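Appendix B, Record 12. Input sequence as logged:
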Amino acid sequence: MVVGIARLELYMSGNRSLKDKRRLVKSLLQSARSKFPSLSLAEVDSLDLKNKATIGFGCVSNDAFLVNSILDKVTSYIESTGSFHMGEKEMEILHF
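Logged structural output:
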């Protein structure tokens, strides 16, 4: 079994409140879930900061190449939305 996990720091400008941030993040999570249905995705940190979101996601497969490909595609998709500036990015692939 191969598990891939990733953590992305996303920065956004123009938010006047946490409500604005949460609306953007919720929209991003919903669109990513619909595009990648086998993915687990959540906001995992920076919950009380209005200009930063930390997103965690992961997937499971029996093929490390597939897991790596999915993590890369999700990261590229999030970057392509244009709503966020990418900060720190961490990815890890675990073999069990």
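The chain has one domain: 2-95.
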